[in-house]
Design brief:
membrane; 397 residues; 20 strands; alpha/beta; five-stranded parallel sheet; oxidoreductase; monooxygenase
Length: 397
């Protein structure tokens, strides 16, 4: 019996483990990668490519190597606990070489369209149209694993910022930020207090004359380094916390304990960062240096922007900052699947997927989205578990 052919779209972290899981289940993976290399989000390039995620040069991962590695290929012992993006790429290359994954990847190949075959209700098969060097090709696949991620399309809600059209300074999305050198002596506002916004504000504050960090609702700020110098995600994933505390105690009490611990590091109210939400309600922001930059005055926390003027900005609390040179919008990303021929509807950046993977309305479960989750922790082990399950569903086991 011929092996089932599976199209894997994207050769980032999710795509690589999907290829590997296909091979484990004796399926035939064919991976299509629109760029010239593996790595997806984690491959730094000075000039962002359209349709591909983009990071800044200094990015360090927020999860430790012990918590982010794939289950059957540990990260080398001499690598640091929290790795620079170049080290993560080294790890992906070692993983791909060890399991001989690259021979299954078609680089510089764009997936143009994925559509049901006429007999889909019986076979679950798909037509996939790809384009390489301007030439299109159509192929039949028994299953589709979409591994395109959700940090590709910059979300820039300029309609929420009155007067932006009058502003004479420069503004852009954090996707286009690469390094701090060009901001020397500038007065800069960073909008957004997620991981990228805080990283950029902290880094630029070493070069700029002043950095303002604008946030609508604050955030819980936590460190990579926990008590006794341990990685915080290892410290917080012990059984006593994940089982005893969270399962046996009421959630509000667990929130209280963890928030109290975090406020001992630095008081969120005093620093103007106290959010309305509880710690386990949303993603915390991970940054070791923000409190130091605030207490030294290099970063000033501000509320949401109310209005732009030609060279100044007015905030919701009535305060005003003049002579603003640059505004960086760290306002997140939106995702879409334009190649999926309306098989999945994305509404307000939300999509309905069974177990966050399978579109529930399809007659056959032969289309899967890998890695479209935002966990408290690393995406890599979750993507591996998703890919294991999906390939076994495809196989019929």
């Amino acid at each position: 019996m011929a092996k089932k052919r599976i199209a894997v779209i994207g050769a980032g972290a999710c795509g690589l483990t999907s290829i590997k899981c296909c091979l484990d289940e004796d399926l035939e993976p064919v991976c299509f990668e629109m760029s010239s290399d593996i790595g997806g989000l984690w491959r730094f390039q000075e000039n962002p490519e359209e349709g591909r995620a983009s990071i800044y040069k200094s990015v360090i991962i927020n999860t430790s190597k012990e918590m982010m590695c794939f289950s059957d290929f540990p990260i080398p012992e001499d690598y640091p606990n929290y790795m620079h993006n170049s080290k993560i790429m080294d790890y992906f290359r070692m993983y791909a070489k060890h399991f001989d994954l690259l021979k299954h990847v078609h680089f510089r190949t764009k997936v143009c369209n994925v559509s049901k075959r006429p007999d889909f209700a019986q076979t679950g098969q798909w037509n996939v149209i790809t384009e390489t060097n301007g030439k299109q090709e159509s192929s039949i696949f028994d299953g589709i694993m979409v591994c395109t991620g959700h940090h590709t399309n910059a979300y820039l809600p300029l309609h929420s910022f009155p007067g932006i059209e009058k502003f004479k300074g420069r503004y852009f999305h954090s996707r286009d930020y690469k390094n701090p050198n060009e901001f020397t002596g500038k007065r800069v506002i960073v909008v957004g207090i997620g991981n990228s916004g805080v990283d950029i504000a902290v880094e630029i504050s070493q070069m700029a004359s002043q950095v303002f960090l604008s946030t609508r609702r604050g955030a819980w700020i936590t460190n990579r380094v926990w008590d006794d110098g341990e990685p915080q995600d290892i410290a917080l994933n012990r059984r006593i916390i994940t089982s005893t505390f969270k399962q046996k105690w009421a959630q509000p009490f667990v929130n209280f304990i963890v928030e109290r611990k975090m406020n001992k590091k630095f008081n969120h109210v005093m620093y103007g960062l106290q959010p309305q939400h509880r710690i386990y309600s949303q993603h915390p922001t991970i940054n070791d240096d923000l409190p130091n930059r605030i207490i030294s005055g290099r970063v000033v926390v501000k509320p949401n922007i109310k209005e732009f003027k030609k060279t100044s900005v007015i905030f919701d609390n009535g305060s005003k900052e003049d002579n603003i040179d640059v505004v960086i919008f760290a306002t997140g990303y939106s995702f879409s699947f334009p190649f999926l021929d309306n098989c999945i509807k994305v509404v307000d950046n939300q999509v309905t997927l069974y177990k966050f993977i399978f579109p529930p309305h399809l007659e056959k479960p032969t289309l899967a989205i890998i890695g479209l989750v935002q966990p408290l922790g690393a995406i890599m082990p979750i993507a591996e578990l998703q890919a294991r399950w999906v390939t076994r569903v495809f196989k019929g086991t």
